[in-house]
Amino acid sequence: MKDELDLILMDAEESMKKGINHLELELIRIRAGKANPQMLDGLVVDYYGSPTAINQVGNVSATDARTLTIQPWEKNMLQPIERAIIAANLGVTPQNDGNIIRLFMPPLTEERRKEFVKRANHEGEHSRVAIRNIRREAIEEIKKLQKNGLSEDAAKDAEKHMQDVTDRYISVVDKHLSSKEKEIMSV
Hints:
Largest sheet: 4 strands, antiparallel
Helix content: 55-70%
CATH class of the largest domain: Mainly Alpha
Radius of gyration: 22 Å
C-alpha cells in the first residue's frame, strides 16, 4: 500500500514539473521587446513535403536586440521559410535578400504589450488548471487505495501532502507570470 501511495505522489509531482516546463517554453515564445531565437521554436517549415522545425532547416540567430536572422542550409528553402513565418502570424514581415531572411521586430506599443501580458496570463491559467487536474486525479487514486485497505489517516496525510505540492507549483506559476509581465511591460 505504502509503495503504491508513494508512486501516486511521485507521478503527480513529476507531471506538475512537466507542466511548469511547458509553461516556461510557452512564456519564452511570447515576445518581450527584444528578439530571441527561441521565439521561432515550434515554427514548422514544409521541407520537401514533411513538416520540419525551422531550426532544422537553417541557422536562427539574433543579430541585435530587434533583429532575427535565418540563414537556411539550402537556398531553395528561403520561400518555404518565408511562407511559414507569414502563416505563423508573428506580427513581423520577413525580409528576404536572396541569401538570408531577416525579421525586424517592431517596437512594442502599449496595446501590444498588454496583449502579450494577456497571452502570458492565459498560458499561466492553462498551467494552473493542469496542475489542479493532476491533484484531482492523484486524490482520486488515493481514495481508491483507501477503499482497498489504506488507513484513513494515511489517506488524509497523502491528500494534505498533495495539496501542499499543488500550492507550491501554483506559486511557481505565479512567479513565472509576474516576472514575464515585468519583462513585457518594461520599456
